[in-house]
Every structure is written in structure tokens, then in C-alpha cells.
């Protein structure tokens, strides 16, 4: 069992040998530096980089990074808590050599996600990647469960020559339109080539609904790797765009009104190689375990939004009738419910059936989001929670009486409401542990204070180029 207290000794000979061999191979391929990547509580990707020749040292002893980044805001301000936000102390960043990849979109660079470890060799309790790994390991040990996950990545493509921080779409062609694909075909072709060179199995890339918007989907893998992939995909999307003179945003909302960028999560639960979302006696082939897992997610969704929709800009996206999933409801292939049961095509359902969680955007730290989603589902599975009735159509059309009778609630309409729901969700906070839960609350409140008094357009502008 992996625990937050497991030591990570420095100077592991195997890691040094692997890293030395990897550094030699990277140098032979013209790689000069390695990006060591992690995501902070605000959902911002942070990095340190080392020359390729220093990779072995990084693998053996880590690279220094202050723990203060646990309480950085998206605008780089710092909030403090009783245990975080101090200028004191240091952590070590240890690259995961299993995920080391040459960046095809950034010639001369390689990339690896990191685990954050104290100088005494213990897992840092604020490391979100360690948290996710711990949740997955606990599910395997206590319940015999494994998971497959994937994070959809939506982004808007803007002209790189627009003045200042203005947003000017790189294309005004129709949503899902052939014209948009043609106009930005060179860019997306290079993006596909870069993903393939990096071993990312892209399932589709296509124009999306909003102005200048695209979406890319990759195959489902274990949750830690899925979160790693989400970070790597965004690094690649941005790098390739820059080489084409374009600018991209993964922010939940780039303008005050309209459809924003989502980061929908696809998640399936497995036991002994069998998909619990298929072949069961429950609704649409779900097993009893899959139904209870889904019920757990539904029950915790209000508090989960503080993790999955963590920015003030998130609530510009989370609006009814925009396929954002803003009601505590589920349905088969229902894109207006928060949880969409995906059965897959006949003949592939034993592999393809999964659950799509819609109120998630790319301001979310993917490690925190996946870990909390799994923890919420496990809470329902452990208690054998009953899954309520399915909702079809748009839940926004239900009257207040109908919604109450069917247990359908509107998710928080502001980050402030989401924080209050998170405070009240003791199982969710317990799963995160006191350090991470404290950081989530402090950073969310800091983000709220940073945009106090701003209107919707100003809030969107404040985060437009942060993600």
C-alpha cells in the first residue's frame, strides 16, 4: 500500500542507472533540457527544468522547489494558512522516469511529471500526484478495484498578433464545421504528429462549439497516467500553436458569455479485468457496484465542484442548457446531466462503457480532480448507495416541485457556494487530508478575493491567459 508517509530514499542505484542511460539517449536525440512538471492547487502548471546531463542527479536526489506554491493563486499572489504559504522550507521534485518523453512540439526538450518529497525523504502531504496514487492504491487493496480514466481537453485558438490580452478567434468558421478544420488544418495536423511522436493515442480531434474552439481526446489509462496525459497534452497543444503563430487558452471561459472550455472526465471501474459498467443486471448494464459508485458521485457533486470547477471563471461556464452538466442528475447519453452514462456501441460495451463527469474544467488540478471523484464514488460503493432515477432531456425544464421530488439539485452557481459545500463535505475533506483540504479552501477564497467587484467580462479576462 502506498501511503503519504512512505519514504523516498535518495540515491537509488537503479534510478541513477536508468536516468544516466536515458540522459545519454536524450542527448543523442538533440534534447538539451528536461521539464519537470507538476500542477498547483490553483490548477496552474508549474515547472523546473534541468539540463539533460543533470537528469541522473534529479532522479537520485530531486530538484528543490518551495512548498509555498501549494498556496499560489492563478495571478501568482500567495495566500497563507496555518500550515502552508510560508517562505520557509523546501521540497524535492523527483521525476517519474516511466513517463519521461521527448517533446515533439518543443525541439530540444523532454518532459516528465514529478512527485514532491520532503528533504527528509517523506511524501509531501500536499503533493496531488501522491494523493491520487494513494486513492487508487487504497481502492485496489480494500475493494480489489482498478480504474480507467481520460480527460477531454477543450481549448480556444486565438490569433497570436491580437493587441494586448485581447481574444480574437483564429477562425470564425462554424462549430464542428469543415471550414474550421480546413482553416486550422496545418496546425491540427502538426498537433496530431506531435502527439503520435510522444506516444499519445489520440482518439479524435475536432472543432467544437465556441468560437475558435477545438477538442482532443486520448485513450483511457490508469488515473495517474491519465492526469499526466492531461498535463502533457496541454503542453503539446500550446507548444505547437506557438510555432504556428497562434495563442491558446484552456480557461473555463475566455469571454463573459457563451460556452466555455470543459475538461470532462471519463471514468470506469474495473475488478479482475471486468468493467463494472457493463454486463450487470442494473440499468443499462451497470453492476450494483457501478450504480453505487455513480450514486456516490452524485451525492458529493456539490462539494466536488470546489475541486473540479475551482476558478471564479468556472461559474461563467457552469450555466444551464449549455451542456455543462449543472444539475445533480444522471442519464444515458444525456449531455445536460452532470453524470452521463456512456454505454458504448454494441459489441464494444464490455470495454467502452464508462461514466462521463461533465462539471469539470481545465482550471482543475487533474490529480486532485480524479482523486476526489474516485473517493466520492468509493464512498457510495462502500455504503451501497442507491442510484436515483434517470433524468432525460434538460433538467432545467423541471419545475421546482418536480426537481425536488426527483432529487435534482442545481450545482453551486458561484465559487463561494462551492467552497461552502466543500466545507460541509466531511468525507471529501477526509480523503484529501488536512493539508490538501486546507489548501483547496485557502486558494479558492483567495481567488474570490482577487476578482471581487469584477463583472463577468472582467472575470473572464482575468483568467483568459492563465490556463
From TrEMBL:
Superkingdom of source: Bacteria
Pfam families: Gln-synt_C (PF00120)
Keywords: ATP-binding, Ligase, Nucleotide-binding
Keyword Plastid: no
InterPro entries: Gln_synt_N, Gln_synt_N_sf, Gln_synth/guanido_kin_cat_dom, Gln_synth_cat_dom
Keyword ATP-binding recorded: yes
Entry-linked PANTHER family: GAMMA-GLUTAMYLPUTRESCINE SYNTHETASE, TYPE-1 GLUTAMINE SYNTHETASE 2
Protein's recorded name: Gamma-glutamylpolyamine synthetase GlnA3
